[in-house]
Design brief:
eight-stranded mixed β-sheet, 19% strand
Length: 237
């Protein structure tokens, strides 16, 4: 697996296929890494054709590592993602993200909108009377990681959690007021559970000008149409 060294972080990524580049930001919450696509009903690596696909393991997920300092934020992850694109010589790409990939994409669109041609958000995480679930999710990941990070004490871990999930923004990484300013074509596939509330997908699709919402896409009877719809959207159809 290829490696990017960024400051003290080691970021692993993979490339598949050829064509216009697509950066994929995998589900899995704090475990977001390329291998998580294998367990999903729609897997861009297997189902998108005619594109150069890039998967990456986010910091301290999969094979990627980084020190824990307490200064981490959504901007830290955005910088990692842009560093991968820079490393690969990619000036502009599509971005596909699921779960935590929703906030990742939105912060990319706020930070470097000129780098993203089209974006697909599948069942984004977000807030709808479920704050405790994200606190618990982070703490579970922290428990797995803490022995590998003697450099970090409780204050650093708490600051990390607060920066990502401590606020009241529905989509975590950007304020709702930002959504109507997005000019990037956006396809939203609706979530349907505690961590991926349908209300959040509807808010996103309803707030971004021209965004398209797909409500039913995961059932066996929908998968063929789902794959075709995403393929057509990314080819500009």
């Amino acid at each position: 697996m290829p490696v990017l060294q960024r400051d003290d972080a080691t970021i692993h990524y993979e490339e598949y296929g050829s064509g216009f580049p697509v950066l994929t930001l995998a589900p899995g919450g704090m475990h977001s890494s390329g291998g998580y696509w294998d367990g999903e009903v729609w897997n861009p690596v297997k189902q998108l054709t005619g594109f150069r696909l890039i998967t990456m393991d986010q910091r301290n997920a999969g094979a990627s590592t980084a020190p824990v300092t307490g200064a981490e934020s959504w901007a830290t992850y955005t910088a990692d993602q842009l560093a991968v694109l820079d490393h690969l010589g990619i000036e502009r790409c599509h971005v596909v993200g699921q779960c935590i990939g929703g906030p990742f994409i939105l912060n990319l669109l706020r930070t470097a909108p000129e780098r993203v041609a089209r974006a697909v958000v599948l069942q984004t995480i977000g807030l709808d009377d479920n704050h405790q679930g994200f606190h618990d999710m982070f703490e579970h990941w922290r428990g797995e990681q803490v022995a590998s990070h003697p450099e970090a004490g409780p204050a650093q871990w708490d600051a990390y959690r607060t920066a990502l999930f401590g606020g009241d923004e529905v989509l975590f990484s950007v304020p709702a007021a930002f959504l109507p300013t997005i000019g990037t074509p956006l396809l939203v596939l609706q979530g349907n559970d505690e961590h991926h509330p349908p209300s959040v997908s509807r808010l996103l699709a309803g707030s971004v000008p021209g965004a398209r919402l797909v409500e039913q896409w995961k059932g066996e009877e929908h998968l063929r149409a789902t794959a075709a719809r995403i393929q057509e959207f990314l080819t500009g159809s």
